[in-house]
Write a structure and sequence with these properties.
This protein is mainly alpha-helical. The chain is built from six helices and three strands. About 2% of the residues have low confidence.
């Protein structure tokens, strides 16, 4: 059986009340969830940088090892050429061996220079690593504090939030899909998250623009869905009629 306009409006207003309460809970948390996420991303970035520093240091240490091996190899060749030099038969052989000795000596000097450069780079990177580790510790402390703060706030409203989310799922089932999509779209575009409002003191409860008396009369009848001409929010009713109903109930109890 298809719902009447009044029933549709009641279902929408109920959903709006649930969403407004959820908004209030999330507002209490403020920017904390985003701040926690930003800190987690920042720390992940620093950890990646730390890994790169350590990788660079490892590569430089491998280079030093290779240069030291080159020096040992050159020293062996120098020893070999010096022995050969003692047994040369002519000047041409002597000159050739002398050139080889000079070349190996140059290789040793170049390797020693590169070892010095690599060691200097390692020293600089080690300082960077220590500074980054200290900074990471501070950021980790900040993250822990923010996480604790968020956990405390969440735990205080966790039960209510779970109940509201369950109520929300039930409320959505009572609203046709097309109407819910319209509601969600209006809510997304509204700064205060209000998609369904009452006419309060002759004005829209969302944008506070005046609603003409004839339009208020149409809203009261609840024969069709009426939206605000200025902000597009759905009118659920006129607030003074709720006050009248409350007064009638009080009188009937009396």
């Amino acid at each position: 059986m298809e719902s009447t306009v009044a029933q549709k409006l009641e279902a929408l207003l109920n959903l709006q009340k649930i969403d407004s309460r959820l908004d209030a809970i999330f507002k209490i948390r403020g920017a904390l969830p985003e701040e926690v996420q930003d800190l987690e991303d920042e720390i992940a970035g620093y950890e990646t940088r730390l890994e790169k520093f350590n990788h660079d240091i490892g590569s430089l240490e491998d280079d030093i090892k290779r240069f030291k091996e080159n020096i040992k190899e050159s020293e062996k060749l120098i020893k070999k050429y010096q022995e050969q030099q003692m047994n040369v038969r002519n000047n041409r052989e002597y000159d050739a061996i002398t050139k080889e000795l000079e070349l190996q000596d140059l290789e040793i000097q170049v390797s020693k220079k590169k070892i010095g450069e690599a060691q200097a780079k390692i020293e600089t990177k080690n300082k960077d690593v220590e500074e980054l580790k200290d900074f990471l510790k501070e950021r980790q402390k900040d993250l822990t504090n923010k996480q604790d703060e968020l956990t405390t706030i969440v735990s205080e409203s966790e039960n209510e939030e779970s109940k509201l989310k369950a109520d929300r799922e039930k409320a959505i089932k009572k609203i046709e899909d097309r109407l819910y999509k319209s509601y969600a779209k209006i809510r997304t575009n509204a700064k205060n998250g209000l998609a369904v409002v009452m006419v309060k003191r002759g004005a829209c409860g969302g944008c506070f623009n005046v609603v003409p008396p004839q339009r208020q009369a149409d809203i009261r009848e609840k024969k069709k869905l009426i939206v605000c001409e200025h902000c597009g929010r759905i009118f659920a009713g006129v607030e003074d009629e709720i006050e009248e109903e409350a007064s009638k109930k009080k009188r009937s109890r009396a």
